[in-house]
Amino acid sequence: MLKEILKMNILGLDTSTEVCSVALKVGQKINKINIPTPREHTLKILPYIDKLLKQFNISISDLNLVCVGSGPGSFTGIRVALGVAKGIAFGLNIPVVSLSSLEVMSYSALKTHNSKYIFAAMDARMNQVYFSLFHKAKTTNNLESILDERVIDPHEALEFVLKYKSEAILVGNGWDAYEELHNNLTSIHNAEIFYPDAEDLINLGYISFLNGNYKSATELEALYIRNKIV
């Protein structure tokens, strides 16, 4: 059973930002494509998947698990990756792991930075940001959520960060999207992680899968947070 798990072929997809991020893990090796394709995710995602499959000389029917970014982010973009993930998982009858784009970016920062608190923010337009707070667990060093994903005004995000500024790190494009945040957080380290990376989506999703946190294709839902499309 353990050997079968280690040999899993896992596809990772995220189109919640302007970057189309696709990765494929075969055994212990991961290849990925991260390319900005604003408004072209629908046209690019399937060719990128096909390119990675060919690099490993496997077919789509060889996949065992799909990991997908469920948002928040661009409403249209989120639906692209979710639609593809749902179609593949349903057609092959394989499980899906869906993860927040904010969580994936925070996980990326966790690998390379020692800060205790990771603040994630993405521009939500309408003078708001998608926001969440994570920290590194003392016993396991794993990523744990302190504040669930939410949409808030920039001044609220600023207040949260300033409470923990000595141990904080920032991820996401939200910190540079509004002058109030950019000008008042120059002393806080920005990890310069602006989009979810499908390689880290796979790595984090694999952990979730091993912990039993996965879904069927029919259970897959988007994490829009806001119910108004902008």
Automatic annotation (TrEMBL):
Gene3D superfamilies, sorted: 3.30.420.40
GO molecular function: transferase activity
Domain Gcp-like per the UniProt entry, residue ranges: 39-160
Entry GO CC: cytosol
BP-aspect Gene Ontology terms: tRNA threonylcarbamoyladenosine modification
Keywords: Transferase
UniProt family annotation: Belongs to the KAE1 / TsaD family. TsaB subfamily.
Name listed for the protein in its UniProt record: tRNA threonylcarbamoyladenosine biosynthesis protein TsaB
Organism taxonomic ancestry: Bacteria, Pseudomonadati, Pseudomonadota, Gammaproteobacteria, Vibrionales
